[in-house]
Amino acid sequence: MTDPSTLPYRRNAGIALFNHCGELFLAKRTDLAGNVWQFPQGGIDEDETPLEAAWREMGEETGTNDAVLLGSLPEWVRYDLPANLVGQALGGRYRGQEQKWFVFGFTGQDSAINLTLQTPPEFSAWRWVKPADVLSGAYDLGFKKELYSQIIPQLVQVFEGAAHASDAEARQWAEKAKAWVAASQG
């Protein structure tokens, strides 16, 4: 058995894609047993920045880049693979992943989302989910549940703080989202 402490972490970009209602894009994995859901994410190639990897992975896994960057988490976040996956998952070369998380606002129509661009597809289904519902137990998050419990509140803060962003496009998108959420609740 591989000693996890001898293996490095794989660098990875995570994508929190919010719609105008403040819901997150969550997708069902095709390669894991059961009914495991997660956010888009993927490895960072040697020749790209974490943000470039996030844009690439979003396009590959969701079929669209109809989005505006709202911000990112300031710190990298690590998670370890469960013991039974060390030496198998991630090519068997890593103990887990070190992720840079980016927050995007979806600007397109739901019909733009296409999970079948990759062969084989990484996801078989997707939906927009309220952040609290991601953690409610309604979705099997597999071994990423602890990670998501840690980062979702931070991702929501970035989403909500985008209204104060210096980037005009992000600020405009966030203001529209806030107005839509307020109108739908009132």
Automatic annotation (TrEMBL):
Top EC class, one word: hydrolase
A Pfam short name: NUDIX
Domain called Nudix hydrolase: residue spans: 8-153
Any single biological process term in GO: nucleoside phosphate metabolic process
Keyword Repeat: no
GO-annotated molecular function: bis(5'-adenosyl)-pentaphosphatase activity; guanosine-3',5'-bis(diphosphate) 3'-diphosphatase activity
Required cofactor(s): Mg(2+)
Superkingdom of the organism of origin: Bacteria
Keywords: Hydrolase
E.C. designation(s): 3.6.1.-
Protein name: RNA pyrophosphohydrolase
Stretches that traverse the bilayer: none
Keyword Hydrolase in record: yes
